[in-house]
Amino acid sequence: MAVKQISERTYWVGAIDWDRVLFDELVTLPEGTSYNAYIVKGSEKTALIDTVEPHKKEELFKNLKELGIERIDYIVSNHAEQDHSGAIPDVLKAFPKAKVVTNKKCKQMLQDLLHLPEEVFKVIDEGESLSLGDRSLQFFMAPWVHWPETMFTWVPEEKVLFTCDFLGSHIATSELFDTTDENRAKVYLETKRYYAEIMMPFRNFIKKHLALIDRLGPEIIAPSHGVVIKDVEFMTGAYKRWVSDEVKPMVIIPFVSMHESTRHMVEHLTSELSKEGVIVRPYNLITADLGNAAMDLVDAAAVVIASPTVLAGAHPAVISFAYLTNGLRPKTKFLGVIGSYGWNGKVMVKHVQETLKNIKAQWLEPVLVKGLPREEDFNRLSAFAKELAEKVKAVSTL
User: Fold this and answer.
1) What are phi and psi of 95, to 5 degrees?
2) What range(s) does the Flavodoxin-like domain occupy (predicted)?
3) Is the pTM of this model over 0.85?
4) What CATH number is given to the structural domain containing 283?
5) Cα(82)–Cα(199) distance, integer angstroms
6) By residue range, what is the domain housing residue 327?
7) pLDDT digits (tens, 9 = 90+) for 112-154
8) What three-state secondary structure class fits 208?
9) Of 243, 268, 302, which residue is a domain's last?
10) Same structural domain for residues 284 and 174?
11) Residue 26, burial from CB neighbour count under 10 angstroms (0-12, 13-18, 19+)
12) Helices (H) and strands (E) in the chain, counts
């Protein structure tokens, strides 16, 4: 995509990956993605903020040529992950006098990941500034959004804050700004998906970084994926809700059913919870987009895992989802297990509970059924739904 000016002296020079469908061989990308890199032109020096995935480096160089960039003094690396740093060796080859500006921890990671030599680095500390002439770069450490070495770069004269992955989204678009109502809806959903899949485990760290943004008061936030954010309050407001301890009266039911018995249980529980006035979302883990389930984990007050027993444990797809959930550490308040078994259902419950050991939530008494559920089993599920609905509504404030 062509170069885009985002403020008086700041330009987008990154690359769009229109048809990428998977990130880290794990995260689905229904809207593609972008690798955003930016140029800040000062009266004396020029800085490149982050780079792109190595396979997109030709687009970066094409944009630098289009912008007439003949000299780069600083390559700022806000985050060492290769989708942002991977083209640094090529930029250094093209601009051998440039220095890679980053913090001490990121420097070590860049040396490990890219084998960059010692002499190319300029290491900066918290709050330090670097002059470009009539523009300046100021650096703020932002560990654990989402790696330990991440930092933000602030250009006070432009009121632009570069946050790398933080506040980003996986969107491929030629409309760089979130300016239209249609874009706002898409940007909100894809930013929430990004938060759910990438940032949610670090929500307690994120709170103080949001406070820093409030203090700086940027007019533009330029992340390294997705759109450039002009409506800063809209996006930081959404993030503040997501990282809060508040939950919705929502129950999600990730499930697998091998011979319909567990499915009958899920359908009955879904119906009963709905009657109780609770938002309920069943997800068949064999066919569901896990990104959608992850987005609901951001707000859901409760998660009920539903599984048959397989080889003295839960179904592998259920355990895979439970493993991801355990890593994402959602703020859910209640956890439950239901399912159908042939010989021993308790081993399935133990398998699920051990996999979700990092989630600090109240466990409800499981509902297990041998084979196809009977009328008394549906009655137990109805009682389970009533108890869960009361608990969920009591703690929900969103």
Assistant:
1) -130, 75
2) 251-389
3) yes
4) 3.40.50.360
5) 18
6) 256-389
7) 999 999 999 999 999 999 999 999 999 999 999 989 999 999 9
8) helix
9) 243
10) no
11) exposed
12) 12, 22
